[in-house]
Specification:
This protein is of the alpha+beta class. It contains 15 helices and ten strands. Helix 14 (377-396) runs antiparallel to helix 15 (404-415). The longest helix is centred in the last third of the chain and has 33 residues, at 331-363.
Amino acid sequence: MNYIPLDAKSVIDYIKFNRKLSAHFSNNSDIVANEIGNGNINYVFLIKDKKYPSKSIIIKQALPYLRVAGESWPLTKERNLIEYKALQFYEQLTPGFPPKLIVSDPEMCLFAMEFLGEHQILRDGLLELNKYPKLIDDITTFLSHTLFFTSDFFLPRVEKERLHSEFSNTEMTKVQQDLIFTNPFKLSPENNWNRLLNELVIKTRTNNNLKVKIADLKDKFQNKTQALIHSDLHTGSIMVNKNETRIIDPEFLFFGPMGFDIAALIQNLCMNYLSHYAHTADPSTRESYQSYLFDLIISIWKDFKLKFENLWINNNFGNLANNDFWDYQDGNKGFEIFRNKYINGIFNDMVGFAGIKMLRRTMGFVSIHDYTSIKDTKLRASIEEITIIIGTRWILENEKIRNIDDMINILLEESRRLVI
């Protein structure tokens, strides 16, 4: 079948045409389709089986352009196959975290997967003040396993190069380079910011020390191929309930710096923390939930660090500096020094990347619902101002910030300036 973009009507006809999808449902006349979500990139359809709801599925189709920008920003449709293969690979590394896949159709640039009907997007749950007892353990397991087992500490160099080639994702990586590291920090037509902050935005975009740091971090993003990273692991790419955590949308996946994935999540959690100054009016309720978020942020880094290092100690078989390299008297001490140095480097990168992502969400193309849903323009401006200040400090001070407590203390210190 030649490629055509689907809609809520034609996707039903497509299911009838596709043997595997048609056989998945009890009766094709009992299915209904709706386009869901507010994705910036693709079409996403929910196909419900009215008779057997458990058979409901998601179909995700790539468009030949960046949806949020329109046809003026072309993209290859074949990125959909990379995402499908990424979800397959994640299932091998971390079984149960990605959604179950049903079928891929490269010609139509789409794939079908299970509908996670008993889960909700983490971002939505956090705005509703929900708490997730399994989230810390689940997300740090996912992060530590995907990052370690695709690194030079575990993989032979030949295998890493093979994966690097298989998951070459140049076009989508270029989108991130532009929208995260470049366009927010110059005059660019798609940038969108609160005009009450014009003076601060101009000051930030013309700060030489800041721009040098951003350029350095962009260089790391482009050239530091430490591991296969999800590259868009924010609170909108994680689905949760009280019992489990699932990971979706790895369409930007590529070999890059480990700290970027952790930064994306922690930065989104910090923005959610700040957004509750607008969304949660009762001071006692707000303070209690922000305390939960504070503990969540701190624990994610500390648990990741512990799990990653344990994996490294027990599986140091890769190409970089495996056990033979340290096989001498007092070699364990050298191995420990190297591990600490390397993990501290991941942390420093993470702090800087988190700062850049704070700024791109307030000065660039696409913000997040945590902020766009704030109806009071002046209050939103106050929160965005603090966000820009925090992000700027994280970038400028990333090599001086020694631990997660120091990083989050900047969040607490600056947020005290908000008058609610």
